[in-house]
Each structure stands twice: as C-alpha cells, then as structure tokens.
User: Fold this.
Amino acid sequence: MMIRLYHLYFLLSLTLIFSYPVVSSPTKEVQSIEVSGSHRLNIESIKSLLPIKKGDNITEEKIHGALTEMYSSKFFSHVDINYDRGILYLKIVEVPVIADISVEGERGISKGDIKAEVHSSLRSPFQKSLASQDVRRLLSLYNRHGYNKTSIEYSTVDLDENRISLSFKINEGYKTKIKEIEIKGSKAFSSRELKRQLLSKKQKWWRFLSKRDVYDKERMEQELLMLKSFYGFEGYLDFKVVSNRGVYTEEGKYYSWFIEIEEGDRSKLRHITIENPYKDLDSRKIRELVKLNQGEILKLSKVQSSQRAISDYISESGYSSSLVTFDFNRVESEIDSSPSYDLVYKIMKTPRIYVREFNINGNNKTLDTVILREINVKEGDILNMSLLGRGEQQVQKLGYFSSATVRPISIVGDGSRKDIEIRVAEKQTGSINGGVGWSTLSGFTIDLGISNSNYKGTGNNVSIDVEVGSRIKSGSVSIFDPYFFGEKASGGFVLSYRESNYTSLEGLNYEEDQVSLTLSSGWEYFNNLTNTWRLTALRDNYVNEELGYNFDNGITDLQLVSQNLIYDLTTYHLDARTRDGLLLSWGAGYAGFFGTENYLKNDFSAGLYFAFFNNAIQFKSVAKYGTIQEINNKPLKQQYGYILGGDSFRGFDFGGVSPKLNLNTTASYRSEWMLSGTNEFSFPLGLPKMYEVKGLLFSDYGVTGDATDNVKKGVEDLQNGAYPDAVILYSNKIRVSAGVGITWNSPMGPLALSWAIPIVEEPWDQKRLFWLTFRSTF
Assistant:
C-alpha cells in the first residue's frame, strides 16, 4: 500500500513539473532610442555615433562602452544613458563648434606661419586641451624666432547655434639680438673663418631684413654640429666643444654667445679595410675608389666621397639595396704623437634586385612618358640606385613640379624585384610676364611675354615675346620639344622680327630690319657634351648712311646652317651662384645655298672658373676667337662681321675697338676676325647673401681684324672720287682695359654697373668709361 502511494506521489510531481510554465529572468531589449539636448547635430547623426542600436540587449558593460565612445567623438561635453522599459534615453550636452579663428597682436611673424602652428580648426568641436597645446606651440614658434618675454592667451566668444569664436591674443615682447659671438681655443683656423661656418651673425644695422642676428636656441645647437663637421672635413676627428654658454644683457634684449673648443691634432690614416661580401665584385676595384692613402690626413670629406663612390659602384652592379657604412678605430702609437685611425668600410650583402614596374602619382596634367624618359632605368632592368637618383634630379630640373621623388617599393612575397614609385606635385608652368629695363646700348625697353614650358603636359615649351623700346622693336614665336625625335634629341623653331635704330649712337649709326625663321635640333652625346644644329632663313634690310657711304646698304637674303658644340665640365654652386671647372664651345655656320650671301663662320670660346672661400668668391678667365671668310668671291657685307666694344669690352664704346674711316672716326666697321677675353673676380661685399650684391674687379682685352673686302673696295671708290685722303684706320695691337663694378640682383630686377679705363689703346679708339644695365619684371 505504501509503495503504491509513493508511486502515485512521484507521478503527480512529474506532472506538475512538466505542466507548470517556465519563467526566465526579464531581458533588457532596446525597443526605441530617445535623444535629448541636441541643437546643432541632427538626431540620426547622434544615433549613428552610439554603438548601441535598436534590438540590442542592454548590459552595464555596453552602457559603459557607449559612454566612452560618445566622449571620444569630441562632440559632447556631457552624456547620460538610461534604460527604462525598453526605451534607451540618451541625454547630451554638445561641445560648441569653432566658427572663427582669429589672431591679434602679431607683427614680426606672419599670420600664415602662426596659423600653421594652430591645430584647432574651423567647423570642429572646441577642445580646451587642444587650444592650450596651440598656445604652447605658438610660444615655441616665437622662441625659435628669437622673441623674448612673449605671452599668448586664448579666449572664446559664444555665438548662436552653439558656436564660438576662438581668438589668440599675442604680446610679442621683443627680439633678442646677438650682440657678440666669441670662439676660443682655435689654433688651425682664425676666429673669423670659424664664424663663417655659423649661420648666426652679430647684429649689424644692415641685417634688419635678416633673422640670422636673432637668438635662436635650436639653430645654435645645429650650428655646433656644423662646426664639428667642418673640423671633421679638415681631418680633426678629435675635435670637441668644451663649453657652450650664453649671457643675456639689457633685460634679455641682447645675447652674447661664448664657445670654447678643443681642436686636437689632425688625424692620420693608418690602414684601410674593405669588408666585401660579394665574390663577383673585385675588392681591388673597390679599394681604388677610396681616395685616401696610408699616412694621409684623414679628412671626412674624402671618406664620405669615397663612400658614395663605393655605393654607386655596388648599385650599378645590381646590388641596389646594399648599404655602405664606415667606421674609425683609433690606434695608439708610441712613435707618432698625432692621432691615427684605421678606416673600415662595411658593405651589407643583399640579393640583386630588378625593376618590375613604374607607378606615377600626382601628374594630373603631365604625361607619364614625359617623366619616364628622364629616368634611364626601364622595367626589367637591374635596379640601379645611382641612375634612379640622377633620374630624380632630371625630373626636378624639368621645372614642371614643385616636388618630385623617385624611390623603390618592396613587393610582398617577391624579394628579387621592386616597383618604382614616382610622386610629383605639379605647379603652374604657364606665365605672363613683363619687364622694363634700360641699358647704355638698347636704351629704355618694355617687354611682354607669354609662355608655357609644359604645354598640355607634353613637355613642349611654347612662348610669344614682344619688346618695344627707344631703339629696338622685336617680336618672336617659338616652340621647343626636348624629345622631338623620341629620344633626347630636341627640335623646335623660332619665328622672329627685329627692328633696330642705332643712328643716335656714335660707333654704330645704322638702321636694320630683320625677319627670320630658325629650325633647330639638339642632343646630348653624354653627360657633359651637347650639340645643337640650326637652319635659318633670314631677310635683312640694312641702312647706314654715315658708316659706309652706302657701301653695304640694301636687302640681304640669307640661308644659314650652323651648329654649336658645348663641352661643360663645370660644377654650379646654386647657393652662391658660382661655378668651378672648364667650359668649352665651338660654333660654326655656313651661309650659301640660294641666298645673296656666301660665307663660313667659326667661333671658339674657352672659360676657366674657380670658386674660393666656401664658393663665395669667383674667378673666371674667358677667351673668345671668331673668324668669318667669304666664299665664291661674294663680297661679305660688313653687318655680318665682328664688332668689339661696349659690354663685350668694357672701357670702350660700341665698336670702339674696330676699324675706322679717318673721315668719320665715330663710325666703326665690322671686321673678318676678332679676339677678346676677360679675367674677372666677383666677390660679396659683406652684405647678407639674400641681397645678392657682389663687387667686380676685372681686366678685358681684345682686338679685331681689318675691315671686310667690301668696305675696302668702297673706300677705294672714295679715294678715286671726292675723298682722295680716305684711309681705313686699323691696328692689330691688342687693347687692354681694367675696372671695377657692382652687380645686384635687386627686388626690382638685376642691375649691373661698371667703370673701366683703357690701359692699351689707339688714338682713334672710342672710349666709354661707364656702363649700366638694369632690368625689372612685373
């Protein structure tokens, strides 16, 4: 009986368990979201920032994460999130938006430079922390520019629609000027020479436009490194700065800078080691690239130039990723008291790399081919970093881009190839320019030009020029294609007209009208040798009543084939505008074919250039020789001969060193040959480089040949007529002049002034002691 009751109880319990409804814990599902407090942002934009969406289940962790994310958006200064019966309540306080940023009180630094340091931006939420950082950046900017006791604070003004105006108020204080720079401890170099290595300069009245006499801590720290580099380049590897201190005076208005150095002795090279991991590269060949020998002064300049030579050689051999480093090991010697070092060049081994493809970015206008043709590396070639570097320079030299970089990019999963990325930033290549000028020869002139050096992105140069002056009227149209024949062989044409009237000038006294068409083509044989050929058709109307008594007057038709070969071994120093090296040229022309003139003309020029004292002082010696010969007994009209004087021979008038007629010694005849030259020093006059004012000391020399046969025949006619005493005054004696001058690349344009006196001359030579040329653009 008891068992039956137990079974009955068990069955009833099971029935109750399975028949009773199951009740789970209540869920917090988001059925809707309500937003309050919005003014500027719309409701949907605010909901899009909230990581919780309709239908999500709510937990404390999700609410905490949502609060963090809403604050991180920077749009809200306060956020509350509450959940009640399926509704998520989002209450916000919006951060005001910056509607305007202004700067007040700035004078010495431009607003553009100031705003570049302000990271708070228009239409962005205002952040107090960011505005405070902006103040610190501006104070650093003023400190770099040498301002002392500068104070800056920001303020805000509330506007409608939850916007503000942000203002930075600046009290600039004053600039701290450098009163004195003193360098102690130098023995090998004078204090003046060392100060030239520094950018900072003592205050001078004429440095009012320069910032180099203003205290700048960051710049001065860099200058100490420049001083160390200067000594290293001269072989003083043990050089060190013992002390570097400064003293403020007159309440911080002035700063005196004191540097104490210890030069040490010049270091000597004991041994050179080349660590070459490549079996296919000759270590002896690499050693020959090091321009240093045992026992020689160990100059850092030679060490670095040898490093570049080794890098270029390895790159050209196909190992473009190899890195070449150098290190010094000091060696103590009981025999020699001078410090000795072992020099070790280390070459890092890498596999050969090949070029897969080129990727060009930024050339919205310029064609890809215009860029690629400047780079002598093609797809599939061995990657040559030296050629890529030269290609980058060539692209920069085009003048079409404000910046250009060429660099290899690694390919994921491919260690044997790289892509070449070329990034350019294009600039405007079209221009409209005008100028006004004056020179002793041309008088007052006005010119206007329209040009585009990259016409429609093809790399072609198209220009139209017009010049109108008191003695000259001219115009020209030209088109030039640097790759006219597909390779680096240029082609183009110039159509021009020129009307000259020099009847008011003694020594010239002629009028001439010319119209010409010139076709040209040029190419580069190798890096230093270029050749240009021209075909010119010209019509010339020449009138000179005084000069030849109608000897050469009339219309001339001329067809001329000419070439110019230039061998340029010079290095140009852009910062100092000086050069070093040798420059040779040869020009030759033949006039004949169907024209009225038939002659052969050759012109030779040789120039030797030296730059001294950090390339600041330039010496040049230039000599020129030209000759013209008539052919087929066709009399040579004298307007195609040579004339010497004026800017080509300072101290003498235009044509002053040329044959004369005793009946009128102010008029000059052109001759069949000419020799001239100059020896000149140009040097800075102590003013800042930015003014580009230089002095000149020069001596010119020259002589011309006898008058042309056509003129001689005309003089014979005068002798047989009304002027039996007519004689051509001519001498083959070389004339010489010497003088001084000034050149100034002024803000208005270049100006050149010279004063010279003849030292060797003939009685009939015409002198002009003063020469002036000025030109301005607008």
